[in-house]
């Protein structure tokens, strides 16, 4: 298990009710599952996560399975929901 920070942006921040929180997990899948189980988080939060892109220490996760993305000690996970704009 590693400890680090999850940072939420835009709609993810609104759905999470916070801009950032700690993680204590071995993989991205584990960190996201734990975050989704936080008390008071609605289905909207899980829907935002399903549509989001992720960076781990600035590196895009892309299409890799989240259970194969190992989180580093002291790492930062960025949760980036789809952005509107032009």
UniProtKB/TrEMBL annotation:
Pfam families: ThiS (PF02597). Gene3D superfamilies: 3.10.20.30. This is MoaD/ThiS family protein.
């Amino acid at each position: 298990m590693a400890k680090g920070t999850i940072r939420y942006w835009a709609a993810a921040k609104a759905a999470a009710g916070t801009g950032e929180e700690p993680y204590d997990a071995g993989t991205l899948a584990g960190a996201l599952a734990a975050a989704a189980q936080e008390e008071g988080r609605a289905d909207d939060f899980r829907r935002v996560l399903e549509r989001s892109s992720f960076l781990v220490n600035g590196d895009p996760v892309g299409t890799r399975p989240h259970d194969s993305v190992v989180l580093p000690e002291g790492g930062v996970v960025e949760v980036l929901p789809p952005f509107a704009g032009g």
